[in-house]
């Protein structure tokens, strides 16, 4: 994991436009000795070729291939613009990450950052916090704000008792110190809330110590008070940062994932990109809820799938009425949404790597055909 010091984080900065924001980032990279003077010109040239805005209020300006010789060592600088900077095409950047790399090392860095920066809640926290330590902890994945993890999920429970499923969840939350005994007393005594399709919610108004979710799923659905039960979620909540996951519980595709998905798929549905297109479509594909078609293509681009060809590919994919996921078969990566520029860039696909595309939907076949043709053509060989 890359190292991040307090000096690499710049909070509450202001800029009137993206050129000024990029200049501030370039100055910081020069001042650290990571790049030589002149790197700014390469960053501006790269931005003129194609926007470096990723989504979620995040932009990653970086130099062109021609300015790699000005990089002394791979480095990153984080700038927070609470008032936002117009990044063009209606996009506002609140977090600007300046990257300097003399090779493709920045791809590994992007892979490390993807899980955090592709999370809407984390991005909002980064845009508003005035605490350098908290900013650093979010970036480094050291916060305790992860609402649910693999240890909080229990599947295939042999039971026909809603109380048993709730008790399992309470135990998980207690292990995380997310609740205290007051919570336990109230949640056991209070009626559960049915969300439909066999999914129930339990919580308490007292004894919440930090935001967390635990989930238990029975091996077979059963009846409680005349209604089906299979999944019980128990919620500990101390502020509205948990609201994005709660809203997702009403999404039909997320509900299907909770009922049929694996632990990994459930985590994706509740934490990766809740309730937005890329998370839902990816969990749908992974869960095998609809027939999918696949293809494997080999990257031909001389410099691999770096930012510019990745942006071209993603922009092309977004045109189709289809759910499309992609996986790099040569580095052990998982299927990710092919409509997320940050995730596609972080695939780390080099020339010769094989990408597996999985698609479903009305235009799935057409999409894969044209994606194959686009990749075979070299994805625009200009650097």
TrEMBL record:
Keyword Calcium among record annotations: no
Keywords attached to this entry: Kinase, Phosphoprotein, Phosphotransferase system, Sugar transport, Transferase, Transport
Domain PTS EIIA type-2: 2-142
PROSITE patterns: PTS_EIIA_TYPE_2, PTS_EIIA_TYPE_2_HIS, PTS_HPR_DOM
SUPFAM superfamilies in the record: HPr-like (SSF55594), Phoshotransferase/anion transport protein (SSF55804)
InterPro entries in UniProt: HPr-like (IPR000032), HPr-like_sf (IPR035895), PTrfase/Anion_transptr (IPR016152), PTS_EIIA_type-2_dom (IPR002178), Sugar_PTS (IPR050893)
Domain HPr: 292-382
Listed PANTHER family: MANNITOL PERMEASE IIC COMPONENT, MULTIPHOSPHORYL TRANSFER PROTEIN
Official protein name in the record: Fused PTS fructose transporter subunit IIA/HPr protein
Source species of the chain: Pasteurella oralis
């Amino acid at each position: 994991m890359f190292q991040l010091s307090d000096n690499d984080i710049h909070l509450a900065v202001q800029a009137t436009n993206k050129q000024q924001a990029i200049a501030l980032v370039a100055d910081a990279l020069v001042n650290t000795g990571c790049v030589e003077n002149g790197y700014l010109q390469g960053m501006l040239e790269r931005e003129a070729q194609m926007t470096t805005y990723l989504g979620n209020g995040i932009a990653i300006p970086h130099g062109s291939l021609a300015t790699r010789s000005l990089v002394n060592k791979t480095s990153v600088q984080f700038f927070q613009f609470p008032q936002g900077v117009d990044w063009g095409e209606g996009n506002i950047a609140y977090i600007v990450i300046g990257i300097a790399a003399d090779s493709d090392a920045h791809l590994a860095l992007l892979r490390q950052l993807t899980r955090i920066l592709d999370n809407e809640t984390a991005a909002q926290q980064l845009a508003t916090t005035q605490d350098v330590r908290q900013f650093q902890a979010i970036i480094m994945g050291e916060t305790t704000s992860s609402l649910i993890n693999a240890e909080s999920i229990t599947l295939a429970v042999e039971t026909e008792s809603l109380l048993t499923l709730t008790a399992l969840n309470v135990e998980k939350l207690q292990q995380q110190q997310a609740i205290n005994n007051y919570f336990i007393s109230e949640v056991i005594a209070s009626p559960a809330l049915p969300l439909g399709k066999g999914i129930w919610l339990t919580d308490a108004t007292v004894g919440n110590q930090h935001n967390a979710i635990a989930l238990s799923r029975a091996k077979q659905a059963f009846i409680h008070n005349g209604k089906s039960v299979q999944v019980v979620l128990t919620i500990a909540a101390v502020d509205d940062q948990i609201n994005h996951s709660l809203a997702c519980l009403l999404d039909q595709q997320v509900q299907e994932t909770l009922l049929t998905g694996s632990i990994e798929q459930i985590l994706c549905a509740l934490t990766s990109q809740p309730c937005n297109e890329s998370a839902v479509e990816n969990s749908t594909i992974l869960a095998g809820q609809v027939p999918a078609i696949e293809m494997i293509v080999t990257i031909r681009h001389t410099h691999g799938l770096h930012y510019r060809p990745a942006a071209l590919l993603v922009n092309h994919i977004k045109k189709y009425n289809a759910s499309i996921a992609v996986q790099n078969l040569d580095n052990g990566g998982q299927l990710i949404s092919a409509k997320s520029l940050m995730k596609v860039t972080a695939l780390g696909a080099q020339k010769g790597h094989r990408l597996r595309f999985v698609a479903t939907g009305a235009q799935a076949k057409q999409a894969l055909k044209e994606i194959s043709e686009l990749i075979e053509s070299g994805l625009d060989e200009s650097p």
